[in-house]
Amino acid sequence: MLRTPYYNLDKLMLQQESATFEGALTQFKHFFVKSGRIEVSAGTTTVTVTAGHSCFVPAGAGSYTIKNLADKSEVLVSY
């Protein structure tokens, strides 16, 4: 969606319930749930994030997994 030398913004669309997305981290990620509901796991921590809310995952976590908990979820990812 947006790329600059200092900031990036992507859109992640999860179209099916229980759909998952995995990624490696070289820098922090900020996940804002525009619609739906997701579960974000990194290391030994898992949080549920609902529409209108967000969470940060630090680069030190190494990797993360997002699981869709709704019919459809739209997530804005900034880093």
Keywords:
mainly beta; five-stranded antiparallel β-sheet; four-stranded antiparallel β-sheet; 9 strands; 62% strand
What does this structure look like?
- With about 80 residues, the chain is mainly β.
- It is built from no helices and nine strands.
- Strands 1-2-9-4-7 form a five-stranded antiparallel beta sheet, with no helix packed on it. A four-stranded antiparallel beta sheet has the order 3-8-5-6, with no helix packed on it.
- Strand 5 and strand 6 form a beta hairpin.
- It is globular.
- The chain starts with a strand and ends with a strand.
Rounded mean pLDDT score: 97
Percent of residues in β-strands: over 45%
Number of H/I helices: 0
Q: What radius of gyration results from the CA coordinates?
A: 12 Å
Sheet having the most strands: 5 strands, antiparallel
Could you write a compact summary of the structure shown?
It is built from no helices and nine strands. With 79 residues, it is mainly beta.
Itemize the secondary structure elements and their pairings:
Blueprint (H helix, E strand, L loop, with lengths): L1 E2 L4 E7 L5 E5 L4 E7 L1 E6 L2 E6 L3 E4 L5 E6 L4 E6 L1
Antiparallel strand pairs: 1-2, 2-9, 3-8, 4-7, 4-9, 5-6, 5-8
